[in-house]
Amino acid sequence: METQNKIALVTGGSRGLGKNAAIHLAKKGLDVIITYQSKKEDAEETVELLKNVGVKAAALQLNVADIKTFETFFNEVKSILTSVFNAEKFDYLVNNAGIGIHVPFAETTEEQFDTLVNIQFKGVFFLTQKALGLINDGGGIVNVSTGLARFALPGYAAYASMKGAMETLTKYQAKELGSRGINVNIVAPGAIETDFGGGVVRDNEQMNKGIASQTALGRVGLPDDIGPVVAFLCTKEAKWINAQRIEASGGMFL
């Protein structure tokens, strides 16, 4: 009888850091469910990549900002767990989906604030709450923060504040879910070359060089610097790491 792979659910797994994490999870032998908001073709391409690694994979549509849809979403998760993975529950939840809004504190609108709160904090809070019944005891949760919660760069007041809230929530989740053997950690990437925030770190040469000069390892981060860290936290080797903020920034602004 074949052994059941562990299963990870990665939100926003069709591109960027989420996609990279999904690929590294697959390389570690985990089956993966990814979510996407609108880019179904990207998600399907990622699913094929994951299957090519040799694991089972599937993609589901999810808007993390819309709490009303979570019940329907998790019904779909249940259904896909049965049909694709021959399982009733999954093991690891990676709360990766997010957006960045770069705007000075003095000019941040209520609409921008609410958008960030819904995607980066409120959505993650209640999505994780709704997921609890489907996560196996002994599993884990990986949240995502940012280096900007430790150091301040003008223009990220609202975004970084939500991530600061996520760092506090991580500790409470670890404390309250510990009785189920679920460990909860948060990964804080530094500046990364992706299409995040309109690709500003990747495409603005001056900004790229400036960040590299302030980073101990002398360059800007790449998705491949983050995905393996997320994947490692979803293994039994990382089981004793709990309630930790793990910054993966190459030593930015030390």
Name of the CATH first level = Alpha Beta
Give the overall average pLDDT.
95
Question: What is the CATH topology assignment?
Answer: Rossmann fold
Domain tally:
1
Q: Order the strands across the largest sheet as they lie in space.
A: 3-2-1-4-5-6-7
The CATH architecture term is: 3-Layer(aba) Sandwich
Number of separate strands: 7
Q: How much helical structure, as a percent, in the residues? A: 40-55%
- Extract low-pLDDT stretches: none
Q: With helices defined by DSSP (H or I, 4 residues minimum), what is the helix count?
A: 8
CATH superfamily: NAD(P)-binding Rossmann-like Domain
List SSEs in N-to-C order: EHEHEHEHEHEHHHE
Write the layout of secondary structure elements.
Layout: E1 7-10, H1 16-27, E2 31-36, H2 40-53, E3 57-61, H3 70-85, E4 90-95, H4 110-131, E5 135-144, H5 157-177, E6 183-189, H6 200-203, H7 205-213, H8 223-233, E7 245-248
Parallel strand pairs: 1-2, 1-4, 2-3, 4-5, 5-6, 6-7
Helix pairs in contact: 1-2, 1-8, 4-5
Task: Give a description of the structure.
With 254 residues, the chain is an alpha/beta fold. The protein has one domain (7-247): Rossmann fold (3-Layer(aba) Sandwich). Helix content is 43%, strand content 17%. It has 8 helices and 7 strands; from the N terminus they run E-H-E-H-E-H-E-H-E-H-E-H-H-H-E. A 7-stranded parallel beta sheet has the order 3-2-1-4-5-6-7, sandwiched between helices. Helix 5 links the parallel strand 5 (135-144) and strand 6 (183-189). Helix 1 (16-27) packs parallel to helix 2 (40-53) and helix 4 packs parallel to helix 5 (157-177). The mean pLDDT is 95.
